[in-house]
Amino acid sequence: MANGKKLVIVESPTKMKSIQGYLGDDYEVLSSVGHIRDLASKKEIPADKKAAYGKYSIDVENDFDPFYVVNDRKTKTVAELKRALKTADEVLLATDGDREGEAIAWHLLEVLKPKVPVRRMIFHEITKDAIREAAENTRELDVSLVDAQETRRVLDRLYGWDVSPVLWRKVGSGREGTALSAGRVQSAATRMVVERERERMAFVSASYWDVEALASQTGSSFTTRLARLDGAPIARGSDYDDNGNLKKAVVVLDEAKARALAAAITTAGRATVAKVEAKPGTRSPRAPFTTSTLQQEAGRKLSMSAKHAMGVAQRLYEKGFITYMRTDSVALSGQAISAARAQAVSLYGDKAVPANPRVYKSKSKNAQEAHEAVRPSGETFRTPASLASSLDRDEQKLYDLIWKRTVASQMADAKYETTTVTLTVAAGEQVAEFTASGTVYTFKGFLEAYEEGNDEKRNGRDDDEDQSLPAVAAGDELTVSDVEPKGHSTSPKPRYTEASLVKALEEKGIGRPSTFASIIGVILDRGYVSKRGQALVPSWLAFSVVRLLEEHFADLVDYDFTAALEDDLDAIARGEQRRTEWLKSFYFGSEKQVGLRHIVDNLGEIDARELNSTRITDTATLRFGKYGPYLEITEPGADAEAKPRIVNIPEELAPDELTPEKAQELIDAPVAGDRVLGENAENGKLVVVKDGRFGPYVQEVDAEEPDEVDQATGEVVEQPKKRGVKKEVAPKPRTASLFRSMSVDTIDLDTALQLLSLPRVVGADPETGAEITAQNGRFGPYLKKGTDSRSLDDEKQIFEITLDEAIAKYAEPKYGARRASSALKEFDADPVSGKAIKLKDGRFGPYVTDGETNATVPRGEDAMAVTFERAVELIADKRAKGPAPKKAPARKTTATKTTAAKTTAAKTTAAKTTAAKTTAAKTTAAKTAAAKTTAAKTAAAKTTAAKTAASKTTAARSTASKTAAASKTAAPKATTTRKAPATQS
Q1: Cα separation of 582 and 596, whole Å?
Q2: Distance CA 769, CA 36 (A)
Q3: Which of 312, 329, 468, 709 is deepest in the core (most CB within 10 A)?
Q4: How open is the CA angle 718-721-722, to the nearest 5 degrees?
């Protein structure tokens, strides 16, 4: 029986603890730990559903009905939720208030199938007042938001699973064998980065000169810059186009002219103030943070990646310090405006705020983002200093940024005055005009609290340097000294940073605030781009991928088309479009678009070799192969069938740096390898070091036998060819890769022989007698004993480790295949396990562990900045998710056994039937000669399998399953009707 408690289900374990404290004992708060189910993988689809759902886990012929399964990691979570549900008299689904949160709430409703009233609880900050108000003011599930999120998920599956296989076949694999992928947003983002690099590659730099001088008066001096010569403007970088041509009529100084002019100005030594112009101005504060502007500023000012910034913001939100961090609204509530204004007045005085509050309006019309900007939570804002003991370093930095931006957004305009001084100098027969500018703030206003950062600007040197100018008047005489001619070159557009890419994606309408961090994470993980400092540099792999998409999937990577998809999803979220009709148009085509299926079915032939080739010079072609990019050199006049020469490309060389000149430099460079180190005394073979396509290595080769010479004539005797004798296949020569610490220039014979002798036998395990060997592998040095391996700390240990040390290594825990390296940091004991927490550097990156649970430090987060509290949080989250599922061993298929269909979304466990193993298949009749045929066995097995499959119910998710709870069944049949959500009041 119900005990009167209300069951509140949130997404995060961290939220769970805070909210439980705010709601009290009348509520039980549990966490779903994110999504509990998703689209099935192909192997999870039962045999009787393969025909309809087998390709995408979506029945495209039946209103795009998706087939969901509960995540293996979430079975315990679901069981715990069902246990709590038995004693609850009401369920409050308190997942996040955006589309994804709404979809999680719907999936919980579908899986748990509560018989008690269900309501939706929404809050945008985790404070006592906000949580209690949310619990008292609930609503029904928003089916339009669910439809929009489900459409997005189906759309991404159709797009990715149709386009990605083309990349696998025609381009290959990504970084360290990572499977390539295509996606409607990630592909557009990759294209943007590649297009910027193409622009940089095509850019033609132009050179120009100008003159700078120091002007002085009564002890005060300032820097001036040549602006005009005889009334005509001097060329600046902005006057040139990307081809190095001038866009307007200006005076171009070369080095000789600039030096001659500088000499004439030095000789003159005096300048006259021609005019002084003073212009007043004002600057207004920026709006409070949205998700995208928060990511941009965190990148500019804190050097945080988008993913890292969102992770820190998530922690701040879950701890109750800021409002919900996924939003594109710039609006503030009345209480937030009052709090910001009050804090500004208390810190900077009454004049710091304008007479009327500032009201910001969002340009977005998304239904899912109809709440506040990212701001400090509560009716009064806590200062960063007051939270110093509650936040780790990254949290402190990001909270400080959010707090300052929010307070500044309600402060008064800054007022300033910009003064420009123009000087004239008689330089021989020419009149040179110099200018200098300076800005003085008469009232700093919001700048007392916050000033927005800037992205790198192109030709930024064209702007006059802001400086303090002395009081001068027209007609004043000034001294001119330190006259210096300066040469400049125009620069291409800067590469995207994470901040500027987020800004560009938002401007183009590609993606949504909640997806920007994951988009950038995907293109980094796939090896499409890498980071050089803050800049995003595309790989040659990205060039091949984008070229394929542009040539064969042009509509799918068109920016306007991608943005239109987002607008359509927004329309579905607002209830203005129907999910099914929209998906039919996208997939099958309509009057407005061709349709994904038509595009994929009519691809035609794709020349993979041409696709992965870029002509650099007439003789050098860049090709992208299985192991990365390389130059293929065709010598002029060479035989058409001659094997072209291969030249490696340095990993650190960016695509725009591979100019024809650089390519020739690589071609002409002496080959570092093919150096004979000496002879192996044991077998007489020569040991050679080479620099191969896949890295430097040493190899044993046979010494060339000297030709036999006729003593009488001195001519080489040709040996007669033996006909009809099959040529023996030569054994492969022994090779060994150099360690990372070794160089082809310094390696000697002894070291090479050690490498060739690997794997080294360390000894035998005294308990089992198994041989233990030390060797080097793809992921570094390791020990091997049968199928059991242990990582070594460094390459030197391969040759130095003793048997006792090796046995000690095997006595240590394996840590789930991670390198058991020494701890980078050590913390106090974990409050749950009671064991000391350590920060370690594993094979796949840094992680924290208490010896029982390992939790990876998220990509982009500074591992050395992890605090004890953060380590406890990471381990707690990982512990809540449960262990990673183990891959099921491959099952051998026999004639008389069938694999039971896997239970589906609703997790209805069908009784296991032994029909497939009945004695009918093993009767005496079956032992006769006639019945022993494979055909008879196959027929019997198929019949039995059909009966078994028919007896199992599935829970393929139905579009009609959003009906009232009373009408729900364990396995609803898919229909075309989508009704109101199954919430109860």
Answers
A1: 13
A2: 47
A3: 312
A4: 145
Amino acid letter, residue 233: P
Residue with tokens 């402060």: 411
- Give the predicted TM-score (pTM) of the model: 0.71
* Token reading at 422: 């123009």
Contacts for 520 with CB less than 8 Å, ≥ 6 apart: 189, 305, 306, 307, 498, 501, 502, 536
Closest CA to 393 of 895, 866, 923: 866
Span 950-985, pLDDT tens digits: 333 333 343 444 433 333 333 333 333 344 444 443
- The helix or strand, by DSSP H or E, that contains position 788, with its residue range, turns out to be strand 788-791
Q: Could you write out the DSSP letters of every residue in 735-754? A: EEEPPTT--TTT--HHHHHH
- The torsion defined by the Cα of 670, 673, 676 and 681, in degrees rounded to 10, comes to 170
Q: How far is CA 242 from CA 206, 408, 538, in A?
A: 9, 39, 20
Residues 754-803: tens digit of each pLDDT: 899 899 999 999 988 899 999 988 777 899 998 888 888 888 899 999 99
For 882, counting Cβ atoms within 10 Å of its Cβ (0-12 exposed, 13-18 middle, 19+ buried), the class is: middle
Residues 6+ apart with CB under 8 A from 71: 35, 36, 37, 38
Rg over alpha carbons for the chain, rounded to the nearest Å, is 35
Residues belonging to the active site: 324
Distance CA 477, CA 580 (A): 78
Q: pLDDT-based confidence at 930, cuts 50/70/90?
A: very low
Polymer length in residues for the chain: 985
Cis amide linkage into residue 759, ω under 30° from 0:
yes
